[in-house]
């Protein structure tokens, strides 16, 4: 039985430069990408509310954007920023946070989406990884388990069958992980990856929790479409702020930011999300889509199951 208190802090890794999501991340850290009207990092923090009191965010590439967007608090979650001056791997990034966390904490990747119930499953553990079944497990680290314990996490095995359990990259950890990381020599590329410490964690009794629907990874630009649908499926109400013209028809759950202008005869079919200051021209149709801020659409335009970024003119 553990006598340690439950984790009340989170470390969120946001330092890396994502090249697989180019061109979306040429000048922007991946946690700042918007999905269904919310930045990825903002969604993660919203799911942490009530679970932790403080989050340590490790920043690097264009980290200033994250600091300026979030400030010192996200509602009731205090935010502390630590810079990884050189991108030397996820293990090195975690070491940067060592002086800022207590005995137990939750580790999250800042560029994936995780729902609250999935994160909560980690809180009662000292050393635990969050796992999920995936149709393409060969893209991730696949768990080899024995009962409730993880024997190994095998990186990107080509022969893994669909629906194998993969690591989401979310962990419950204790401070012992810092000692274990320092014992590992940097790889030939001079990077210290968190995955290098997993065998040592397994020897200490690494447990796992499984989420069926609480994790959505973002690896490539087209994943934004899939993630937007995933989040919009949670919408339940109609809430449009702004001016609606004559004969506007809205079906299903639709959410908007402030000061939208919806022209005469527009049809909107949810689930759908409109950002702030969106203008939709007369007789246009929006069906199951996410539209960013400051978007202007002309007359007789139609968008179905798509995503439009901020500032687009159509």
Describe the structure.
This protein is an alpha/beta fold and 314 residues long. The chain has two domains: 9-232, Spore Coat Polysaccharide Biosynthesis Protein SpsA, Chain A; 238-308. It has seven helices and 27 strands. The chain has helices at residues 40-48, 63-70, 90-96, 116-120, 176-182, 198-203, 223-232; strands at residues 9-14, 34-35, 38-39, 54-59, 73-74, 77-83, 104-109, 113-114, 128-134, 141-146, 149-155, 164-174, 207-210, 215-216, 238-239, 242-244, 249-251, 254-256, 260-262, 267-269, 272-274, 279-280, 285-287, 290-291, 296-297, 302-304, 307-308. Strands 5-6-4-1-7-12-9-13 form an eight-stranded mixed β-sheet, sandwiched between helices. A five-stranded parallel β-sheet has the order 15-18-21-24-27. The radius of gyration is 21 Å and the shape is elongated. The chain starts with 8 loop residues before the first strand and ends in a 6-residue tail after the last strand. The model has no long low-confidence stretch (mean pLDDT 94).
């Amino acid at each position: 039985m553990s006598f340690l208190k439950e984790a009340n802090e989170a470390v969120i890794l946001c330092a890396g430069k994502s090249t697989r999501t180019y061109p979306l991340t040429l000048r922007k850290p991946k946690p700042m990408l918007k999905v269904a009207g919310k930045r990825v990092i903002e969604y993660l923090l919203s799911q942490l509310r009530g679970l932790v009191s403080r989050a340590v965010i490790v920043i690097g590439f264009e980290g200033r954007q994250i600091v300026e967007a979030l400030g010192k608090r996200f509602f009731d979650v205090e935010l502390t920023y630590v810079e990884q001056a050189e991108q030397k791997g996820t293990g090195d990034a975690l070491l940067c946070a060592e002086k800022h966390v207590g005995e137990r904490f939750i580790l999250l990747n800042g560029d994936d989406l995780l729902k609250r119930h999935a994160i909560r499953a980690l809180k009662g553990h000292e050393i635990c990884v969050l796992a999920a079944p995936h149709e393409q497990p060969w893209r991730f680290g696949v768990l080899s388990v024995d009962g409730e314990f993880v024997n190994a996490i095998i990186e990107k095995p080509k022969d893994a069958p669909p629906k194998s359990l993969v690591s989401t990259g979310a962990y419950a950890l204790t401070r012992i992980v810092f000692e274990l990381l320092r014992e590992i020599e940097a790889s030939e590329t001079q990077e210290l990856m968190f995955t290098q410490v997993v065998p040592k964690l397994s020897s200490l009794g690494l447990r796992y929790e499984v989420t069926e629907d609480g994790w959505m990874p973002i690896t490539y630009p087209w994943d934004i479409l899939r993630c937007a649908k995933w989040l919009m499926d949670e919408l339940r109400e109609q809430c449009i702020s702004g001016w609606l013209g004559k004969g506007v028809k809205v079906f299903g759950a639709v959410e908007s930011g402030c000061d939208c202008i919806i022209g005469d005869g527009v049809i909107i079919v949810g689930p759908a999300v409109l950002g702030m200051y969106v203008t939709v021209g007369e007789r246009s149709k929006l069906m199951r889509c996410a539209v960013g801020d400051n978007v202007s659409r002309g007359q007789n335009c139609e968008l179905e199951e798509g995503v439009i970024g901020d500032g687009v003119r159509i």
